[in-house]
């Protein structure tokens, strides 16, 4: 499985700010979106382009444009919505399919409660958006859904990923590509990533202190 840890200084600086325990909802939300923009830049670096002729100010000019497959964004409710504005900054025309999954905090299993994907998934590159890849259960279930809908080219953008989750996902979906700002150390006994960010959904939506 291709895993890219984006070591760019801007990404690392912004992620470092996100790790502070005293961030406001506004600050955490803004940073999540900004890091998502930078991950999108990396994840789209291999898009194919084609050369076409257009009429420029001084006559015909050859320009490059993105070729072929269109991108669909797939934010995972709820926390993935925090990355969506930043990704749309670079891909404003992308169609968006939404999936809803929630981790059962007792079993750590992923429970699916919503799925609304766009059509023609076989013709698209799917970009999954979720701040956290912890045990990998949520991501595995999401990729299962996308493949069942016809997707063959799938990438995932995560602010932070745990080694345990990366291994679990690779065992089931080795064709997936992962872009993350950090591969962190490990999971704690409750399945939270260390050093991690805490509960990203709560921080983005302001539903709980800390
Ligand atoms: O890799 P896993 O162990 O499956 O955990 C990761 C998932 O947990 C979090 O979502 P959560 O279930 O808290 O839902 P929320 O976004 O609604 O808060 C996170 O945003 C991922 O979707
Ligand atoms: O560390 C974690 C793990 C799962 N979900 C989160 O929001 N954070
Ligand atoms: Mg949560």
Automatic annotation (TrEMBL):
InterPro entries the record matches: PRTase-like, PRTase_dom, Upp_B, UPRT, UPRTase/APRTase
Cofactor(s) in the UniProt record: Mg(2+)
Superkingdom of source: Bacteria
Any single Gene Ontology cellular-component annotation: cytoplasm
General function of this protein: Catalyzes the conversion of uracil and 5-phospho-alpha-D-ribose 1-diphosphate (PRPP) to UMP and diphosphate.
Official protein name in the record: Uracil phosphoribosyltransferase
Family: Belongs to the UPRTase family.
Residue sites binding uracil per the record: 193, 198-200
Every Phosphoribosyltransferase domain range: 7-207
Entry keyword set: Allosteric enzyme, Glycosyltransferase, GTP-binding, Magnesium, Nucleotide-binding, Transferase
Entry's EC annotation: 2.4.2.9
Enzyme class: transferase
The organism's taxonomic lineage, starting at the top: Bacteria, Pseudomonadati, Pseudomonadota, Gammaproteobacteria, Lysobacterales
GO biological process, one term: UMP salvage
Short name of any one Pfam family annotated for the protein: UPRTase
Gene3D superfamilies noted in UniProt: 3.40.50.2020
Annotated HAMAP family: Upp_B
Enzymatic reactions: UMP + diphosphate = 5-phospho-alpha-D-ribose 1-diphosphate + uracil
């Amino acid at each position: 499985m291709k895993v890219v840890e984006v070591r760019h200084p801007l990404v690392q600086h912004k992620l470092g700010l996100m790790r502070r325990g005293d961030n406001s909802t506004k600050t955490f939300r803004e940073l999540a979106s900004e890091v998502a923009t930078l991950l999108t830049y990396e994840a789209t670096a291999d898009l194919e382009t084609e050369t076409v002729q257009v009429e420029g100010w001084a006559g015909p000019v050859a320009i490059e444009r993105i070729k072929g497959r269109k991108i669909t964004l797939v934010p995972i409710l709820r926390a993935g919505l925090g990355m969506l504005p930043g990704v749309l900054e670079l891909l404003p025309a992308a169609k968006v399919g939404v999936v809803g999954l929630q981790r059962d905090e007792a079993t750590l299993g992923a429970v699916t409660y919503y799925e609304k994907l766009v059509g023609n998934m076989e013709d698209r590159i799917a970009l999954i958006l979720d701040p956290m890849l912890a045990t990998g259960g949520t991501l595995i279930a999401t990729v299962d859904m996308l493949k069942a809908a016809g997707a063959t080219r799938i990438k995932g953008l995560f602010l932070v990923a745990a080694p345990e989750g990366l291994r679990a996902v690779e065992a089931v979906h080795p064709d997936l590509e992962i872009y993350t700002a950090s591969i962190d150390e490990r999971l704690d006994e409750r399945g939270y990533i260390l050093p991690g960010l805490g509960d990203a959904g709560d921080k983005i939506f302001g539903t709980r202190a800390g």
